[in-house]
Amino acid sequence: MIDRTGLAEFLRRRRESLQPEDVGLPRGRRRRTSGLRREEVAALCHMSADYYARLERERGPRPSEQMIASIAQGLHLSLDERDHLFRLAGQTPPPRGADSEHISPGLLRILDRLHDTPAEIVTELGETLRQTPLGIALTGDLTGYRGPARSLGYRWFTDPATRRLYAPEDHPFLTRMFVSGLRGAATLRGPGSRAAHYADLLLAQSEEFRQVWNDHEVGLRPHEVKHFIHPEVGALELNCQTLLDPNQSHLLIVYTAIPGSESYEKLQLLSVIGAQTLRSGVRDQRIQ
């Protein structure tokens, strides 16, 4: 059963304890609110301000599991806080561990500060959970995929467009690396896991995957330097650094270029192109 009073009080407390800079938002000169505004939290949670306001006022329909998960992420809750929020809403908390998609507050705080850098948070299966704006400009919005296609390793063998973003000379190694990573995850998580399911799907769909899978290669790690082929700025040579959250098996991947290099200049150009595309998209939405 939903505890409307407890839910409303918890949401208000968490909202008032957060500052704009905690969630990657500008503070502004004339700000008088202590903590975040309701409309700011609603935007972070991908819901209407009216819907969120009703929850804080102990009104509205009982929120779904998907809505509660979105609120927990938007408010940068810890796992314990997330589980508490689910129980207040009368829902069973999702499982923790490798299958969890709740990003830790620490990882989110780092990502929020990388506004001028391509970066993303992914699961151990290469499912993108969050990207910076420049990350989207580099690889496209990868959070919109559904089902097995959310996994980069799965798309590598089923969607030819995925490979066009990477330099052809890197394809053989990337093929081996994706298979190696999936084999390791499937063995670690066991039968019935999402990793094992993806492996079964690819074994049935891709001859290339079957051939490399039969080599039983494990332990391959990504190269520090990745070579991208961007449709607008061309070839990019980027260094790749990874930060692991061991509790959630999530990876924060950050792409940088050597200052003064051609790739560095192209990233600067890409940041401008990405911002223009974003503004254009906002204008188009307003016109419709």
TrEMBL record:
All copies of domain HTH cro/C1-type, residue ranges: 35-82
InterPro entries (UniProt xref): Cro/C1-type_HTH (IPR001387), Lambda_DNA-bd_dom_sf (IPR010982), MLTR_LBD (IPR041413)
Cross-referenced PROSITE patterns: HTH_CROC1 (PS50943)
GO MF annotations in UniProt: DNA binding
One protein family per Pfam: MLTR_LBD
Protein name stated in the entry: Transcriptional regulator
